[in-house]
Amino acid sequence: MAGATRTPTNLTQGGKTDAGIGASTLRPDGTLKVTGEFAYSSDMWHEDMLWGFTLRSTEAHAEIVSIDTSEALATSGVYAVLTYDDLPTDVKNYGLEIQDTPVLAHGKVRHHGEPVALVAADHPETARRAAAKIKIEYRQLPLVTDEASATAEGAPLVHEGRDDHHIGHVPHPNIVHRQPIIRGDADEAAKKADVIVSGEYVFGMQDQAFLGPESGLAVPGEDGGVDLYVATQWLHSDLRQIAPVLGLPEEKVRMTLSGVGGAFGGREDLSMQIHACLLALRTGKPVKIVYNRFESFFGHVHRHPAKLWYEHGATKDGKLTHLKCRIVLDGGAYASASPAVVGNASSLAVGPYVVDDVEIEAIALYSNNPPCGAMRGFGAVQACFAYEAQMDKLAKKLGMDPVEFRQLNAMEQGTIMPTGQPVDSPAPVAELLRRIKAMPLPPEQQWLAAGEGADVRALPGGLSNTTHGEGVVRGVGYAVGIKNVGFSEGFDDYSTARVRMEVLAGEPVATVHTAMAEVGQGGVTVHAQIARTELGVEQVTIHPADTQVGSAGSTSASRQTYMTGGAVKNTCEAVREKVLALGRAKFGTYHPAWATAELLLEGGKVVTDGGEVLADLVDVLEGEAIDLELEFRHRPTEAFDLVTGQGNGHVQYSFAAHRAVVEVDTELGLVKVIELAVAQDVGKALNPLSVVGQIQGGTTQGLGVAVMEEIIVDPKTAKVRNPSFTDYLIPTILDTPSIPVDVLELADEHAPYGLRGIGEAPTLSSTPAVLAAIRNAIGLELNKTPVRPEHLTGT
């Protein structure tokens, strides 16, 4: 990339060879990030680059009558203005599964903020001002905003002429996907119930709120191709969608991951990737696009808002008899990951409990609301909020302790899921609940701990000084959740790793090259740890992720340590065998152990399993390099039956439990979360420090949607009302409570090192635990997230 001043570089970390699996090694990118030296995608720079800007629709559903770009084109400093008519091929849509999303709107817009035109100019402000000169005439169309308007007789179709593979089994074209789960006879089982409780629950639209906005740099190549440096979650998925739109073979679209400032699912879909490439190829110059925060709210999908209806029954001794539930997810204007979210929501709707008779239905709608797709927890979050509220209702009606009631019905290894799939690895649900209940509670009235004067930071309202303890009551709540790990329902989920071992500067060095998107989860740290463990070297270099190596799949579904970690492990093992074969060929005649003993690589040497040193790796390798690229796949899964929902759809489950302690100002409706304790089974903690960080981060996101986070969409106009961090609130350090973590390690024999995906499970149960604690404090039935002051005061 000639002329560039900032590009992704290798991350090389030296360390003791015992800084392998199980050690809390520090991140190789950590110091660079905290000192401001790390190159995020928004820092990418080229000396002669242009700046791109996207003009977005001001209407949620409208016909595009005309577009006039003449004034924009006449603006000094503008190099290009593109609309739908300027797209270079007949491929004008893209999508993760269903290619229903236009690169630029054509004929009509389907949601507020949809891309309509692109501008490239020599300065970002010039591009913005030129875009403002584009004149678009809209004719408003009827809105689809909820299930009633989506499925009413004569309802306007969000997508006319659907021909995707889901259309044959949905009851209406405005339903993206439907998945029932039927097992046993819920109606008959209900007759055995001594107690039946039901509830309707509403889960708000949450934003991923990653701090690094969408950004990237596209550089036209001399071969007619393009080099794209971008922050994303899945390089090869992006490539598959980008290349056809550009009319280029995939080998001419060369993608490199630049620094990612968080993702949480919001970078799984395309944002500015195609737009930057189009402008670069049209102008023949590098083009950089960086969204501001306002644009970012429109530039990526959000968590599906949901309405959930649940009915549970139980016998008088506390055993669950049946479950009926219906889950309606609003997918917004385009499909994104909605079909997979429906699969998760339905198959995990029962929660981590034994219920033999279930009747479940989940659907995702097309609407004119903002598109929704992947976000941490992926369908299981919404379901967990509802089924955990139901568990508390049942326990209260039965006069049972809410934790003991959950333990009585907890699944375990061997339990049959409602889909008919057996749980074939540890499922310590009851033990996790026991552990969080056994943790010591924080002291009462802790705002007085420092002395006679109240420390208002520990009170609801904080530094706004709204109370010194008057009207403040405490509540404690519990919740537990279940999340699948990896891609499910028959998807060919695999990952690739290339590992090279050679001698550099007189010592053995391993280089690990994958296309894994490092989005903050710490995969680059774990890959180096795996290489040290398997190859016995100190120096490990992590090559920048790009598409010059095979796909690593998405950094989502809590899958990367399992999948790409598994690929690195397998490839390292194959490299090790090549090294040992080389050693046997060179030195086998000098010691019988070369032929008879189990050999290992440790401390830069070849050793027997008894610790005897046979050779230095430097001597074995000499001038040779061993370079292998291999794929890794998990056990196959299968699609859920479209009528009964039966099928072995998931590869692994993860579990976490939370206890929330809150203080509530009953007069003002303000909530202070004092503590969110977590117990989670991680299978094997490959890096204990990173494990705790992931669990605490997921817990905090769950806290956010419990008490503050929600994208507000005007039901009359389908327009977003709060696209900024001024009005969309996320937890700060002052809002984040103490989060003690109890890590349980029960190995899954089917997974590399016995590990279990950890990133999403804590996001599930933290939200209902906080809601349960607030209910416990004030006695109100709270069935909506987030909880706002007016919900608590009735004002």
From TrEMBL:
InterPro entries the UniProt entry points to: Ald_Oxase/Xan_DH_a/b, Ald_Oxase/Xan_DH_a/b_sf, Ald_Oxase/xanthine_DH-like, AldOxase/xan_DH_MoCoBD1, AldOxase/xan_DH_MoCoBD2, AldOxase/xan_DH_Mopterin-bd_sf
Domain Aldehyde oxidase/xanthine dehydrogenase a/b hammerhead intervals: 35-142
Sequence ranges of Polar residues compositional bias: 1-15
Region span, Disordered: 1-26
Superkingdom of the source species: Bacteria
Protein name: Oxidoreductase
Natural source organism: Streptomyces albospinus
Lineage of the species this protein comes from: Bacteria, Bacillati, Actinomycetota, Actinomycetes, Kitasatosporales
